């Protein structure tokens, strides 16, 4: 099992697909990494040599922000917005949708499960 950027890569999948298991690497970046290192698209992870795994690891370390560093960077950006008190920061602070979505309906992922409000007593 190959371990790249602190993530165990699945061995039976193609390298293009397996690299997307790393947070911060999608299909396009994965394809670019494979072209840079010179690995064919059909190659599977268990067929890689130690040298190829090492070259992939070096390429990711040099060119990409992944895993913990990326998560920390995103968290710091959100914290900065909240400290500034701008609209996006206030929406993050109130745990509401940030990018202009409606909240009257269809905001359940962000707002959490619906809470029933007791009716008026007679």
Automatic annotation (TrEMBL):
Keyword tags: Ribonucleoprotein, Ribosomal protein, RNA-binding, rRNA-binding, tRNA-binding
Biased composition regions of type Basic residues, renumbered to the chain: 97-111
Record's GO cellular component terms: cytosol; small ribosomal subunit
Residue ranges of the region described as Disordered: 97-122
SUPFAM superfamilies linked to this entry: S13-like H2TH domain
GO biological process per UniProt: translation
Alphabetical list of Gene3D superfamilies matching this protein: 1.10.8.50, 30s ribosomal protein s13, domain 2
Pfam families named among the record's database cross-references: Ribosomal_S13
One of the record's GO molecular function terms: rRNA binding
Biological role: Located at the top of the head of the 30S subunit, it contacts several helices of the 16S rRNA. In the 70S ribosome it contacts the 23S rRNA (bridge B1a) and protein L5 of the 50S subunit (bridge B1b), connecting the 2 subunits; these bridges are implicated in subunit movement. Contacts the tRNAs in the A and P-sites.
Subunit comment: Part of the 30S ribosomal subunit. Forms a loose heterodimer with protein S19. Forms two bridges to the 50S subunit in the 70S ribosome.
Family: Belongs to the universal ribosomal protein uS13 family.
Protein name: Small ribosomal subunit protein uS13
The species this protein was found in: Kiloniella litopenaei
Encoding gene per record: rpsM
